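Sample 1 of the test manifest.
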Amino acid sequence: MTSLFKTTLIGAAAMAMTVSGSFASDLIITFDDLNPGPKAAFEAAVEKFKGENPDINVTVNINDREAHKTAIRNFLTADAPDVTTWYAGNRMRPFVDAGLFADVSDVWEANGFSETLASTKPSMTVDGKQYGVPYTYYQWGVYYRKDIFDKLGLSEPKTWDEFLAAMRTINDSGVKPLTIGTKFLWPAAGVFDYLNLRQNGYDFHNQLTAGEVKYTDPRVRETFARWKEMLDAGGWVDNHATMDWQEGMSLFIKGEAAMYVMGNFAVGSMRDGGLTDDQIDFFQFPVINPDIANAEEAPTDTWHMPTNAKNKENAKKWLAFVAREDVQTEWNKSMGQLPINSKSSVGDDKFLQEGFATLNAAAGIAQFYDRDAPAEMAKAGMEGFQEFMVKPDRLDAILERLDKVQERVYK
Amino acid sequence: MSEAPAQPGPAMAMRTVQHSWFHRNRIKLAPWLFLAPALIFFAIYVVIPIFQSIWISFYEWDGLYNADGSTRATWVGVQHYIDLMDDDRFMTSLKNNVLWLVLFMLAVPIGLGIALFLNQTVTGIRLYKSLFFFPFVISQVVVGLIFSWFYNPNFGVVGFVWEFFGATPPAILADEDLVTYGIIAAGLWPQIAYCMILYLTGLNNVSPDQIEAGRLDGAKGWKMLWHVILPQLWPATFLAIVVTVIGALRSFDMIAIMTQGGPYGSSNVLSYYMYETALSEYGYRYGYGSAIAVVLFAIMLIFISFFLWKMWRDEKGN
């Protein structure tokens, strides 16, 4: 009797498997942000996807962002999900080179993404093929204390000379012009990128981060010369090498510094710190060379399909879904960032509105120094920027060291 | 049948003849059986990885496998070691490691001093003792954080002290000349407590007879300490030196928390530089990182050999 019971059970299980096998298929999604805002926005998108594709069994894994950076190196080979988040530019390049990210050019082709996602297409492309789709980015720029500017009778500087003049005025009033925290290096890279983009342009940025230009090149020296002018104008707060970006922010909130070259995520901390929208504002990094079109920094977060994905058809459905205009509109509204799809609309936050206008008008979208340059070069470069800000007279030694690193990294 | 073992007598003697090999050698085997789990784990997680590190250090490898699981590592021989000789960051790390080793040794005499001071019979001394234990109990990460704030020129205690005397406070953790000393000072705080605990234990075992005998011979103060007490504290001193050397060479947590090797690499040490090149976000050069690990291991090997030799000699002497 027990054996009869067993057979029935096994039969029923086998039946169940065939039934689910014939109707449903799987999709395993790995996402990398546990912060409440992005997590909720992602989960809402998954629900929407499930609603549209009732026949797909969706399994979701959400990792901590830092843990994800380590884990992805193993799971792409060992136990790949069907889709995973990552970053554009050179950050995805090692995985493309190792053949771990699959070519999804057909998804771009079929959905007309070359037009709607045009702004980030170059940073998703390796050798003419696309290896993922972008779903969100945010602008960088100069955030400033409007109340301090008003008190000193300053307006948003448009040119380099106006910018330097504003710095001197602010410095004379006893407030530091710019705050920054370089303990974790990357904020300095934002400053370098903007100086370099305005001085030498978007193509030069790409040549430099691709290792085609030496750091001792006179054009790079020009960029550092502008930086030196900022230092000479009393540009930065003291002791920035001991502070992370939030500690730098506290000086901004306390009114001890008037400006901050930062990404749009900084607005959240400013509001949390008690500043009202009347006290803070944003301007585009000023023009240095009027012959050069304005390119902007906008780090892009992306979705990719690993080569070892088991449900490739469903994965492509997901990629097409996340880049769709309505999905990107909702997703970014709830996350407080900018959609990449040019047909999407933006939340009514004034910074997002201004950022969207800026990015849509940009001559190029840079991914940020540490995502455009290979990791090892980025680390050495950012240490160099930090060193330059503290000891500007060591410029020659710094640039020569960077050349040495460059030679090894790109060989 | 089941009652048989409980019955003493000739039946028992008969059975011994049939005992298995295992049973006959159980006295010899027992320690190895108890050691086996530790030995197996020690082999898997310590000994074998050492050889794997040495092996990987001859390869250029970014830690990734191809999609089919095959390796992407390429053989470069001793190239990484040649590169190390020409690497400013590595040289800074090596120099800082030496600095750590030398200055960290201060923990031993300071720990002894505090232990001698606390080894008195006064009311409430237990409370003082436990207060001195405290830094050892606090996690290294917390110590690092506390000292980062402590050193902060804008709102730290150091800043206030400087300003009290009308001076501009130094940004210790942003100054390439001061930063390593600042971190070592922070690391010394719990290390001194550790050495103190070792010495307090040692002082408990100092024989009162010998002190008595020393007194009768007219020894007191420094002479008493040097000729009577310190020799008896030798085991504690040996242990204190061992843990301090190891602590100095594997200094990692403090640097990771306080500066991440900065400003611009000037507070780096080998263990953190190895982590940075091999495992951090900006690294993933497994081969190069392994080469650094091998160098660090070679340095440790010098001390390990010395300690093992010393222990062997002491045991033979006894």
